[in-house]
Write a structure and sequence with these properties.
The complex is a heterodimer of chains A (422) and B (418).
Chain A lengths: L3 E5 L4 E7 L5 E6 L6 E7 L7 E4 L6 E2 L4 H9 L1 E2 L2 E2 H8 L2 E6 L4 E7 L3 H12 L6 H19 L2 H13 L13 H5 L3 H11 L5 E7 L3 H11 L8 E3 L12 E6 L5 E7 L7 H15 L4 H8 L9 E7 L2 E9 L3 H18 L3 H18 L3 H14 L3 H10 L2 H9 L6 E8 L1
Parallel strand pairs in A: 3-11, 13-17
Antiparallel strand pairs in A: 1-2, 2-3, 4-10, 4-11, 5-6, 5-12, 7-8, 9-10, 14-16, 14-17, 15-16
Chain B lengths: L3 E5 L4 E7 L5 E11 L2 H8 L1 H7 L7 H10 L4 E9 L2 E11 L10 H14 L11 H20 L1 H13 L13 H6 L8 H8 L1 E8 L5 H8 L19 E7 L4 E8 L7 H12 L5 H9 L3 E9 L4 E8 L4 H16 L5 H16 L5 H14 L5 H8 L4 H9 L2 E10 L3
Parallel strand pairs in B: 2-6, 7-11
Antiparallel strand pairs in B: 1-2, 3-5, 3-6, 4-5, 8-10, 8-11, 9-10
Helix pairs in contact in B: 10-13, 10-16, 11-12, 13-15
Classes of the chains: A alpha+beta (422), B alpha+beta (418).
Chain lengths: 422, 418
């Protein structure tokens, strides 16, 4: 297996990237300090993939919502016991996550890395679903769904997506609903597994302490060649408009929680786009920004909960702000006004300079930890982006690139989601 | 492998330095530990955020924020925690290592300068009052933090259990003080409060990561401050079981339980191991039985807090299953107390804890947290030494620890209420 060495003079780090003969893309980011290693085995299959067409079939198929997440839970079980029990023998700390675009199986360890890696590569490649084991999980996942029903942060976000997206499945709850998970069968799980858990659609990322040759040796030993197969992810056509500008829900909270933001036209992004958007968000919403200060002085937000984010993926993109607020409408109005003011007056050179330096520092700091490196590389790999190219893009960023991103924010495509006290 | 270096500054202050150039960042913090009391809790809790929001050099909040951004996204913050019967009030600064500062800045000098400036000469007017705008904002935000804790039902259920466990005792006070005490605070109340805190607190100072502190300069600066305090856990009292159920309109009910035990410092690790066997890793009894076999919940965890001499067990369950879940959890605890622990269960709990302990040095925050806790049990024990000790415990040791637990609180937050 041929490895390409990717280096960054700015970060003083390097990693290897290569394609294993099985079809799996492998990323190896060594770190000499520290004691831990993080491993991520992920597939480009997330909660939005409820309609897809395989290259060996004539038509697309739609499956119940929540299968990617259900599969994540069930994959830990195999015919001869569960993977957690096997990890218990090595002491690795294992987990898994289902996102909108991907499902990742991870572990962190300080000892017996290669044994844990064998377990990871084995159980993810060994599905075992029966009527009985699938039925058993409904109670557990049902409680996970119920837990999120009470979470104001979770609800305000999914309500926001419901008000923003007409048809795109990003608006649906990542874990599905109590009703949709009741329709999940072993057949559906096998069907989705065999479609998306193809090594050509997956990545393996290791960061931390390891021996490159030993890792590749375990890959050779454990990876099973996958049939050549590609998957077309099918999404309904999504208009550029929003569904409605305001969405509200009442929950047992002490003060309102809000999410406000702008729907963007979704398109393929490169590292420069992402760098420009990060700078824009820093200028608009970091605690060094004028907008943040005005919100704070008006008593409309607090430092502990206010957040800013660029949420984007296959067929969706939105710039958003959120947190707790006594008056969500006034907070949204102030943000709207600041965006309009900056669109009129332009971003100042000063603001651009401090935002750029801040983002550079944050990127360097993120390379401290094996866990954050693992997540970053995996996320970028599925998006076709490269980590060090992004850090270089931050350094090379120009003010007009950021200004262009700002100009794309349209008031008639903004949504306010509010959770109010009962 | 880097090790922590401890430098006693005085009877009231200690510097703990963890130098590791493998990190791309550094962190400096000053933690002030003071007894939690009703008259001082709210007054002291507002001080660190006030001192950290603007400085003499950067008297404007936004100007300070932009300075930090310009310093490559450095952080400068404050914290208020409760550790047993103590309030831990902190100021901290963090940022990238100087070798990454392309502008040539000495990052340690910049960050420690900001921190020490705020600590020894916070921004106040000629009358010794903190600026009014900052005071209004910080007071409002403290009240909103309390609101946020009500909105998060996992946090709320834990706090209610904790309040019930230590009702009318210092440990039962809120880290931020009581709501009515925060509401009643005035700027005038804070006149002299900072000096009172500085002179009465025990200081734990940390320098961590890719930085090299000037120990003598720190010794000189902190020589006359603080007060020697013999830190320790919340004293043990034989509990009388309290059962409290409250109703709220929530989709998922919460079950939180507290049990107490008298645990000398040298037995801390065996009780933590016992908690791991009961309900921490996926191999634990609660995960394997209450979640996996009985499908009663998504989460069901235990945690032993030595500083509180207490074990907490928490779960989120269907309202109609609240009693079943309690029974199932107590059933697993009873099994542990009867000695129904396999060698594998013990071994897996040990490996889980060792993995976590060995990873402490991979994070500056975790190093700080580990060595802050050591101020309470007065030990110099490193995470590696702790791992060596716990590997020697036997099934009998863990069972004996479980049998010393006394039920103290069963708190249920029941869904469906108004």
């Amino acid at each position: 297996m041929e490895l390409q060495k990717i280096e960054s003079a700015r970060a003083g780090d390097f990693y290897y990237k290569g394609r294993h003969p099985s079809g799996l893309d492998v990323y190896l980011y060594p770190k000499e300090n520290g004691s831990s290693t993080r491993a991520v085995f992920g597939t480009k299959y997330g909660s939005i993939d409820s309609c897809f067409q395989r290259s060996d079939e004539p038509a697309p198929e739609t499956v119940p919502e929540g299968i990617a997440h259900y599969l994540e839970h069930k994959l830990f079980e195999s015919e001869d016991g569960d993977a957690f029990a096997r990890y218990a023998e090595t002491g690795a700390n294992a987990n898994a996550f289902t996102g909108f675009e991907s499902t990742c199986y991870v572990f962190s360890c300080t000892d017996r890395l290669y044994d844990s890696l064998r377990i990871l590569l084995d159980f993810v490649q060994s599905p075992y679903f029966t009527e009985e084991t699938v039925a058993k999980e409904q109670g557990i996942i049902g409680q996970e769904i119920k837990m999120y029903e009470d979470s104001p942060g979770w609800r305000v976000f999914f309500n926001y997506l419901q008000a923003m997206y007409h048809r795109h499945p990003v608006k649906n709850d990542a874990a599905g609903t109590i009703e949709s998970i009741a329709r999940i069968t072993p057949e559906y799980l096998y069907r989705c597994y065999n479609t998306f858990y193809n090594l050509n659609n997956m990545v393996l990322v290791l960061s931390g302490k390891f021996d490159v040759d030993k890792v590749l040796g375990v890959c050779d030993e454990m990876l099973k060649p996958s049939p050549t197969l590609s998957v077309r992810r099918v999404f309904p056509e999504e208009p550029d408009t929003i569904v409605k500008p305001l969405i509200e829900q009442r929950l047992s909270v002490a003060m309102p929680v809000f999410q406000f933001g702008y729907k963007e036209s979704a398109k393929k992004l490169n590292e420069h786009d992402l760098a420009a958007m990060s700078a824009l968000l820093t200028i608009l919403g970091s605690d060094a920004s004028v907008t943040f200060r005005r919100l704070l002085d008006s008593g409309l937000i607090n430092e502990a909960s206010f957040s800013r984010d660029y949420f984007e993926g296959s067929g969706y993109a939105t710039v958003m702000f959120g947190g707790e607020s006594r008056d969500p409408e006034a907070a949204a109005e102030l943000i709207r006004g600041e965006v309009a003011r900056l669109q009129r007056e332009g971003i100042s050179e000063d603001d651009f300079r401090w935002a750029k330096r801040s983002l550079y520092g944050e990127s360097i700091a993120s390379l401290n930890h094996a866990v954050s490196i693992g997540s970053w590389i995996t996320d970028f790999a599925f998006k076709g982006l490269e980590l060090f190219t992004y850090i270089d893009a931050l350094a090379e960023l120009t003010l007009p690139q950021v200004q262009k991103k700002l100009e794309a924010l349209r008031d008639d495509r903004s949504v306010l989601s509010v959770i109010r006290p009962i | 492998m880097s090790e922590i270096m401890t430098y006693p500054i005085s009877g009231a202050a200690v510097l703990k330095s963890f130098i590791d150039p493998g990190f791309k960042t550094m962190r400096v913090s000053v933690n002030m530990l003071t007894p939690l009391t009703r008259p001082t809790a709210a007054k002291y809790a507002i001080l660190p955020p006030l001192a950290g929001r603007a400085t003499r050099e950067y008297p404007d909040y936004t100007a300070l924020g932009q300075k930090l951004s310009y310093l490559y996204g450095a952080s400068f913050g404050s914290g208020v925690q409760k550790i047993g019967e103590y309030q831990a009030l902190s100021l901290s600064a963090g940022g990238i290592a100087s070798r990454y500062a392309f502008g040539g800045e000495d990052m340690f000098a910049e960050l420690s300068g900001l921190l020490l400036g705020a600590l020894f000469d916070p921004l106040r007017d000629d009358g010794g009052l903190f600026p009014e705008d900052g005071f209004i904002q910080e007071k409002r935000q403290m009240l909103e933090q309390k609101d946020a804790e009500f909105s998060d039902k996992m946090v709320y259920a834990h706090q209610r259990c904790y309040e019930l466990l230590f009702e009318d005792r210092p440990a039962g006070l809120d880290r931020l003080g009581a709501r009515e005490d925060i509401e009643a605070l005035t700027r005038e109340d804070l006149r002299g409060a900072w000096e009172e805190l500085i002179s009465g607190a025990r200081f734990e100072i940390f320098t961590l990561g890719d930085c090299r502190p000037d120990v003598e300069a720190i010794r000189e600066r902190f020589a006359g401050v603080g007060r020697a305090r013999d830190l320790g856990p919340v004293p043990y009292e034989e509990p009388e079981l309290r059962r409290v159920t409250e109703c709220q309109p929530v989709a998922q009910s919460k079950l939180t339980m507290a049990l107490r035990a008298e645990v000398p410092a040298e037995e801390r690790l065996v009780f933590q191991l016992m908690s791991a066997v009961l309900g921490e890793p996926t191999s634990s009894k609660l995960f394997q039985n209450v979640r996996e076999k009985q499908s009663l919940c998504y989460y069901c965890d235990s945690a032993f807090s030595w500083v509180n001499n207490a074990l907490f067990i928490e779960s989120g369950v269907e309202t109609e299953n609240l009693d079943r879940a309690e029974e199932a959890i107590l059933g697993q605890l009873a099994a542990l107390q009867r000695g129904e622990v396999t060698k594998e269960e013990l071994e897996y709990a040990k490996l889980y804890m060792c993995n976590s302990l060995r990873a402490v040095k991979d994070s500056l925050h975790r190093v700080e947290s580990w060595y802050m806790s050591r101020a309470f049990d007065r030990s110099e024990m490193s995470p590696g030494q702790a791992a060596d000790i716990l590997m020697k415990y036997t099934v009998d040791d863990v069972v004996e620890a479980a049998n010393r637990l006394r039920p103290a609180v069963v708190y249920k937050l029941k869904g469906g209420g108004e």
